[in-house]
Specification:
heterodimer, A: mainly alpha, 0% strand, B: mainly alpha, Four Helix Bundle (Hemerythrin (Met), subunit A), 6 helices
């Protein structure tokens, strides 16, 4: 037994933490002991799941601090800085506060649905992390239809949001959830279409295969698919319900969104789920567009999972950046943006990729010649389309508008004449 | 592979929970609860597909049925007045139960009576790729016909919901 464990750590210094070697060693141990074959899958699955849940738990705690500190820095303030060194214990204090709070539930709320909603909202975001490769041979479930798995999980979020709003028995919660569902359904289209280009170039929907494609051809797919990256980043930041697109919450008109009735740890779960979903989307972007655990020659000296987590946090920083600096959109602006810009651009991107892959396959030219041409071509196209859209369709900037913006004529009802109040005379 | 203890346990756990959820769809009186149980049933069916090593079909089942159809049905119910109140008794309850029982009996009888042919080969290694090949090579015409049908349905929905004076 010790012999088998020793072989794990002889290869590389980080291999003790490598899921594939660990599960390989467990398989050897089990088969040496004459155990059944399925036990290996159970043990390896449990180990991988425990690893992912641990990662998710730790990031959900750390990210509260990171996000508040970074946004604070961007907005010229300090952020949490009292508990612990540089405010590091703030997430713990928040968690303790949330746990101590009374869990309120509206009297007429649908108790079962009300309780199930935060759980149903959290699970899909964590489940997506099962198909992403954390390192070489380090995937919990290397699904052939990995991208479809991502779509399937994100489509479950709509139902979870709905039952959260419905179960609260509060019309503002239902408004919030309906707004979020409208956005989720709308932005699902550009998201699917932008990832279609990735799958077409890589020739596979397996996330391992996509990382291997980037390794084989010595490039990150963001170079080949800049337009898809822009579309996916914007659409997913809308789906994440974060500040440039936080439709659910608007304290002045529609109260606190679909979780307005939640308090205590149930609200805490919603809050954590939003952070987890953000990390999940960052992980997807890091895998599909930024090469996953592969980074040119770097992955030979640094463990792949460290590179990968570094990339995930780089993308996460982009999300914090947009949150900290951009103003929020109105719902009609956001939906019109999806239908009038995102979807057509994603269609153009899909056609472009289809033509390029067809040329690649039919001519049989080597990837070393064609892919650099495609990189230049696609970057130029993306830049041209974005600039053209801004020039042609975006409204002109006006410091002092000289005409009504939304209505050409507004009928202002004339006010009834009021006699001016004389100073000194007291009206009854 | 299919006789492995893990697969057998997974099949029975998924099958029993799916059937229980399906029964709850008919048993609960609150329509929204019924739709939620229906979504759980869809997820359970996807689990059975996974046990059968058809991962792509399973994921599409979750994506389309549990995700899209579930949301569609909740919207339909939200547009129905007083749908989430307790449904009243109807006189069709007993006949419907008899009919459903008959259908179940027939399906069970056929399933037991048929001589199932067991093919010797293993499951397809990658169902997504072979499905894509099948759609775009031998079955491209039916595939295109279905796309045109969906397009027609979509245009029809737009035409039906457009109001008379709309010039947008």
């Amino acid at each position: 037994m010790t012999g088998a464990l020793l072989t794990i750590i002889t290869d590389n210094w980080w291999d003790i933490r490598d899921l594939s070697n660990l599960s390989g060693a467990i398989r050897d141990l089990v088969s040496d002991a004459g155990g059944p074959g399925w036990l290996v899958y159970v043990v390896a699955g449990l180990l991988g799941a425990a690893g992912i849940v641990t990662f998710v738990g730790v990031t959900a705690i750390i990210n509260i601090w990171i996000e508040r500190r970074v946004v604070g820095r961007m907005q010229s303030r300090l952020g949490p800085n009292r508990p612990g060194p540089v405010g590091l214990l703030q997430p713990l204090a928040d968690a303790i506060k949330l746990m101590q709070k009374e869990v309120l539930q509206p009297k007429l709320a649908d108790a079962l649905v009300f309780t199930a909603a935060p759980i149903a909202f959290t699970v899909p975001g964590i489940a997506v992390l099962a198909v992403v490769p954390w390192g070489r041979n380090m995937t919990l479930a290397s699904l052939d239809a990995g991208i479809v798995f991502i779509f399937a999980m994100s489509s479950l979020a709509a139902l979870a949001v709905f039952i959260g709003g419905y179960g609260s028995n509060n019309k503002y919660a239902l408004f919030g959830s309906m707004r979020v569902i409208a956005m989720l359904v709308t932005y699902e289209i550009p998201i699917v279409m932008s990832l279609l280009g990735i799958a077409m170039f890589a020739g596979t929907m397996n996330l391992d295969g996509i990382v291997r494609f980037q390794e084989d051809h010595w490039l990150f797919l963001i170079m080949l698919q800049p337009l898809a990256f822009v579309i996916y980043f914007m659409s997913s930041s809308a789906e994440l319900n974060r500040t440039p697109a936080d439709l659910a919450e608007a304290e002045s008109e529609i109260a606190g969104g679909y979780h307005v009735e939640y308090s205590g740890m149930k609200f805490g779960l919603y809050y954590a789920a939003e952070l987890i979903n953000c990390v999940t989307v960052s992980a997807i972007i890091a895998t599909l567009f930024l090469g996953g655990w592969w980074a040119y020659k770097l992955d030979e000296i640094v463990p792949g999972w460290m590179i990968y987590i570094g990339k995930v946090y780089a993308v996460y920083f982009l999300f914090i950046w947009t949150r900290g600096t951009l103003p929020r959109f109105r719902i009609d602006q956001l939906l019109a943006f999806a239908w009038k810009w995102m979807t057509p651009m994603a269609l153009v991107n899909v056609l472009m990729v289809a033509a390029e892959v067809l040329i690649w396959e039919e001519t049989g030219w080597s990837a070393g010649v064609l892919l650099p041409i495609y990189v230049v071509l696609n970057n130029a196209l993306a830049l041209a389309l974005i600039v053209a859209w801004v020039r042609v369709f975006a409204p002109r900037f006006e410091r002092f508008p000289d005409r009504p913006r939304f209505y050409s004529t507004i009928d202002v009802p004339s006010l009834p004449a009021v006699a001016p109040v004389q100073p000194g005379t007291q009206s009854q | 592979m299919i006789d492995d203890a893990g697969v057998v346990v997974a099949f029975w756990v998924i099958a029993v929970s799916t059937v229980v959820c399906a029964l709850m769809v008919a048993a609960v009186r609150n329509l929204v609860h019924a739709v939620l149980f229906l979504a759980l049933t869809f997820v359970g069916v996807a689990g059975i597909y996974i046990v059968l090593a058809a991962d792509f079909v399973a994921l599409v089942q979750v994506l389309i049925y549990a995700g899209a159809v579930g949301v569609l049905m909740t919207f339909a119910i939200m547009l129905t007045p007083a749908a989430d109140r307790r449904n009243s008794e109807t006189i069709f309850q007993a006949p419907a139960a008899v009919l459903a029982g008959l259908v179940l009996a027939i399906v069970t009888f056929v399933a037991y009576d048929t001589e199932w042919r067991i093919s010797g080969r293993d499951a397809f290694p990658a169902t997504a790729a072979s499905l894509g090949e099948a759609f775009l090579k031998p079955y491209v015409v039916p595939f295109e016909v279905v796309s045109v049908l969906l397009m027609t349905a979509m245009i029809g929905a737009i035409v039906l919901t457009r109001e008379e004076g709309d010039d947008v």
